[in-house]
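Researcher: Next entry in the queue.
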Amino acid sequence: MATMVSTATPSPSKVSLGVRLGYAVGSFCTANFSTIPGLLLLFYMTNVLAVPAALAGVVLFVPKAWDLIANTLVGRWSDRTVSRWGPRRPWLLAGAAVLPVSFALMFAGPPITGVPAAVYVGVTFLAAATGYALYEVPYKAMPAEMTTDYHERTSLLQWRMALIAVSIAMSGILAPTLAGETADGYRVMGVTFGVILLVAMLGSFFGTARAPFTAPRKSEGTLREQLAAARTSKQFLWLLGLSSAQTLGAGVMLAGAPYFAAYALDDTAATTTLFAALVGPMLITMPLWVWLARKLDKRGAMILCGALFTIGALLLLATPAFGELYAHLCVMIVGFGYAGTQLLQFSMLADVIAYDGMLSGERRGGIFTGLWTAVENAVQALGATAYGWVLSLGSFASSDPEHPVTQPDSAHVAVVIGVTVVPALITFAGVLMTLRYDLTADRLAAVTGGSTPSAAPVSGSDGQHGGQDRTQDGGRPEPGEVLRTEE
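Model: Structure for this entry, 487 residues:
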């Protein structure tokens, strides 16, 4: 088998439908692990395990703080990986060996409550977060290496976001239904979704066997030098900032949903319907957001997303006066903004990675996605932590199913403020940061000297990535070149 290097052609590079779907299957891992702990873990600790709200918030944050280190290391390692499966796919398999089991154990602990229960949940959550890092960092780096076309990346990620919407709907509706309000229910839920995680992670590993990938130079320099390079990319920093604000706002609202249903709507079952109202727009608006990204550019579409989220959250503040139907309509407005945010931020990240690769000629996608995923996970956990602090300020009392308590009026106020005003203010800050992001289609095209860069697929004769490249033969592919392996 000989290795050939061909220069990328100016025509848009297409990713096959099979690869799109194979990659998108991994979204079930992303969505389930992002949604279920954010939606249920705080409530599980405060209302089932009798863990004080402030302590529960800390337990949620510490494992995610570890991600700041773990994700960066995984990104660095995956950038340097050379295998017959390509640089990213071995890590998908490693994550599949750790995350599903750890996730199931997180909700299947011994019959303990209070501080011991908090310690147990913290340890298993730390293990699960590590498994997620092994998988998610390389997974997010793959789109930038599958195609160098600006709009093709958005189209590729549209499939991913469509399955994320399905997965979020499934986890947001099925998980609370299975969990109920008892420890046994949470055990059943944990095992069920542990199996779903395993199937999704293995599915993306096998489903991307024929994925094309462009071939920038192998990563160079020390970890410190590459982190410094990432910090010098103002496009990456502004994107990271605006995404963090949007993720934090959504995380606060997500953590507060079960409390809002139980204490503002007086209907614990409304957690499921509120979640359906949030993710329903994701199932129908993805083509609209792809169209808006072309018409307004991605930055303009992202500003619109943040505005819709902010307006919907503030309108939700009037729920006590207008009732449950009104609350669901407000959440649907939030959902329209949330849908676009989920699509656009990852498409913009792929643009930033490609832009950096064109300028530097180095493979640093793992570093970017490592930092991205670390910060994303930290702010997701900080969302639940922040909501726990809001509850604590409102004198919310923790409990277990055998010993229910009556909450003071201040706790009811805290429940509503935490789901409305707090996420609205955070998301609006993200809108302001979006105004500073300047990596448009025209700017990206200026670097490549064409309308948009493109690349042909790279695969071995067995349909896999092919582990050979000119870096192994003593030469280096030039930035924008594509590897092909032929018999």
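Model: The CA atoms of residues 81 and 223 lie 14 Å apart.
Researcher: Noted, moving on.
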